[in-house]
Design brief:
Chain A is mostly helical. Chain A has seven helices and no strands. The longest helix of chain B is centred in the last third of the chain and has 43 residues. The chains are: A mainly alpha, B mainly alpha.
Chain lengths: ~140, ~100
């Protein structure tokens, strides 16, 4: 995927502004941040619940706490950052570097299994699984 | 159909592997807070498995489905965020109006 330079630059600006926002404000204390609709409707955690708090914790250097809020988001971030870096590099150096891992059938299936089992497990209110929940 | 007949029927070079939208689906699932992204990941998996069995048309269709669900999740998420902000502003406005005599 090659994005135009204009798109890439605006994405970088949005990413920096977003990071600053999530660095400065704690989503669990401020009502500036939207709540998850799925959680509001069902009182269950969706795979993304807790990711805003996790980003805030990560940006403030608290990795364990971030993993407690949303383990999957913390594990996925390095991959997403890698993907973003490849996309930026492709756009700036006019390359077509592929992100092969995302097209490996095994990897895609693993992602699907990870997301669905994470979704189920984090809603089991028993101790080994309860750690996966987003908490309140 | 065995491998050799398939080769004879499709001598054309296989088309480019269609975009599977996996990264976008993961983003929507984990950071847009909507389970629509999961549907995107399901179709992302289909894109690869269909492409690898030689079903290029099916892979193309799955790619379009993956794009549809990912975008749906993204825009619903975005719409909710915008509505949420309007709601917060409205509540802030109401609170300000109600308290205007107290200051």
């Amino acid at each position: 995927m090659t994005l135009s330079r204009k798109h890439i630059l605006s994405l970088i600006v949005v990413a920096i502004a977003g990071s600053l926002l999530y660095f400065l404000f704690d989503p669990s204390l401020s009502n500036l941040f939207p709540k998850c609709i799925f959680h509001s409707l069902t009182n269950l955690d969706c795979p993304g619940c807790g990711s805003q708090r996790a980003i805030h914790a990560l940006l403030n250097g608290r990795v364990i706490q971030a993993a407690d809020f949303n383990l999957l988001a913390v594990l996925a971030l390095p991959l997403l950052v890698y993907s973003a870096i490849v996309a930026i590099a492709n756009s700036f150096f006019h390359q077509e570097w592929k992100q092969k891992i995302f097209y490996s059938p095994t990897f895609v299936k693993a992602v699907l299994i990870a997301v669905v089992s994470f979704w189920v497990m984090r809603n089991i209110p028993v101790e080994p699984f309860h750690w996966l929940s987003a908490g309140e | 159909m065995d491998y050799t007949t398939q080769q004879q029927q499709q001598p054309v070079v296989p088309p480019m592997r269609p975009k599977n939208w996996l990264v976008e689906s993961i983003l929507v699932t984990l950071f847009c807070c909507l389970p629509f992204g999961v549907a995107g990941i399901v179709f992302a998996a289909q894109v690869n498995s269909k492409y690898d069995t030689g079903d290029y048309e099916g892979a193309m269709r799955s790619s379009k489905e993956a794009a549809k669900w990912t975008k749906l999740g993204f825009f619903i998420g975005l719409g909710c965020i915008i509505l949420y902000f309007i709601f917060i502003m409205f509540m802030g406005g109401v609170a300000f109006w109600q308290n205007r005599g107290n200051y």
